[in-house]
Write a structure and sequence with these properties.
Bound molecules: 1,4-dihydronicotinamide adenine dinucleotide, oxaloacetate ion
Structural class: alpha/beta
Radius of gyration: 23 Å
Order of helices and strands: HEEEEEEHEHEHEHEHEHHHHEEEH
Oligomer: single chain
Strand order of the largest sheet: 8-7-6-9-10-11
Number of helices: 11
Helix content: 25-40%
Distance between the termini: 62 Å
Strand content: 15-25%
Length: 384
């Protein structure tokens, strides 16, 4: 018998009830609900139903106050069945969405034992394409995928989501800077902020991918004041991964042997400089030139890395780059969504402190902060 358990609560010794239907019932996987209360009649109950609906109850009666998800057992195993996590992907009919949703459904984002329910949002003109993506998700028969909501209704899309990956919006074309799509995209983030604030699950974690990613995330934060600022982030992990990839190629070492690069500031071309850095900075533009479309598979994969590390934690001794709400660390103005080196544990990110910043880097850190301040003003002018 295997017990897989992800809560720090002692489980009383478990004796499955004597089955009245012999092997048949032993082979039936039972849904077990655990509920508890303090003192008095409180205790631990494990109950389930057999094929005929007969209730089977185990009462550990140890008075441990808790309320947890369900798990299941069979004759050979007793395994924690995690509750599905609801993951919203906006712009799901677009090219990043198309690459991202199968990754999520396969467990790339939240782990191979974490069931998911996908919420996919797009706009009315993309409704048919969105439905096509839903059909493909069904056809792929992903074992972890417990449901798909495909909708053009933002409230339905946001309802009870635990994680929101905000990809919806317009991509830049060749020759444009990312902030050139601001006027089209920033209004989306203002309006979707309210829907998330009102309808998402408490403690929903938000990752903004659509450009200009830092400023869209900041607008979302400002128009969803009840979502904790720690829960709103933007994607700079793609730049981080690009830097890892460049180091790996140039030194001819496996990318898994490279770690702890840092992306400071904006997802834009005001990151640090030098030939290596220019390559990383201009990689998005190079991909647009080559594909006539902006990056998609690498963006989707990096979005999975971002959420995975945030939720499941960064490996010991490793930091990653996340666009997060600045608290003034490294003398970056507080109140910007700025990319910092962070470590994550227990679902929380922490900025790595005390790294040396030389004079040139200082200038560049300030420059990218100035750009973000200007973008913020531009965003508000687009909204007024
Ligand atoms: N932060 C990063 O590292 C990266 C950011 N991006 C950005 O991600 C965004 C999406 O890129 P792609 O998927 O290539 O674009 P795309 O054009 O293929 O897909 C975007 C989707 O968003 C939908 N959409 C538009 N308005 C919407 C709204 N109000 N609500 C929901 N959906 C809406 C569109 O109908 C479309 O299906 C772009 O802004 C792009 O610049 C792209 C690559 C990397
Ligand atoms: O460059 C773009 O427009 C898309 C993007 O953000 C990237 O690939 O980094």
């Amino acid at each position: 018998m295997l017990v897989a358990w992800d809560l720090d609560i002692p489980l009383p010794e478990f004796h499955p009830p004597d089955p009245h239907h012999g092997q048949q019932i032993l082979d039936k996987v039972l849904e077990i609900n655990m509920r508890g209360g303090g003192g008095g009649g409180g205790g631990v109950y494990i109950d389930g139903e057999d094929d005929d609906g007969d209730e089977m109850v185990y009462d550990g009666d140890n008075g441990v106050p808790f309320s947890v998800s369900s798990f299941s057992f069979s004759s050979t195993s007793l395994q924690m069945a995690k509750q599905p996590v609801r993951v919203l992907v906006t712009g799901a009919a677009g090219q990043i969405g198309y690459a991202l949703v199968p990754m999520i459904a396969r467990g790339v984002m939240l782990g191979p034992d974490q069931p998911v329910i996908l919420h996919m949002l797009d706009i009315a003109p993309a409704a048919e394409a969105l439905n096509g993506v839903k059909m493909e998700l069904v056809d792929a028969a992903f074992p972890l995928l417990k449901g798909v909501v495909a909708t053009t209704d933002v409230v339905e899309a946001c309802t009870e989501v635990n994680i929101a990956v905000m990809v919806g919006g317009f991509p830049r074309k060749e020759g444009m800077e990312r902030k050139d799509v601001m006027s089209k995209n920033v209004a989306i983030y203002k309006s979707q902020a309210s829907a998330l604030e009102k309808h998402a699950a408490a403690n929903c974690k938000v990752l903004v991918v659509a450009n200009p990613a830092n400023t869209n995330a900041l607008i979302l934060k400002e128009f969803a004041p009840s979502i904790p600022e720690k829960n709103i982030s933007c994607l700079t992990r793609l730049d981080h991964n690009r830097a890892l990839g460049q180091v790996s190629e140039r030194l001819n070492v496996p990318v898994s042997d490279v770690k702890n690069v840092i992306i400071w500031g904006n997802h834009s071309s005001t990151q640090l400089h030098g030939e290596f850095i220019t390559t990383v900075q201009q990689r998005g533009a190079a991909i647009i030139k080559a594909r006539k479309l902006s990056s998609a598979l690498s963006a989707a994969s990096s979005a999975c890395d971002h959420i995975r590390d945030w939720v499941l934690g960064t490996p010991e001794g490793t930091w990653v780059s996340m666009g997060v709400y600045s608290d003034g660390s490294y003398n970056v103005p507080a109140g910007l969504i700025y990319s910092f080196p962070v470590t994550c544990r227990n679902g929380e990110w922490t900025i790595v402190q005390g790294l040396p910043i030389d004079e040139l880097s200082r200038k560049k850190l300030d420059l990218t902060a100035e750009e973000l301040t200007e973008e913020k003003e531009l965003a508000y002018s687009c909204l007024s």
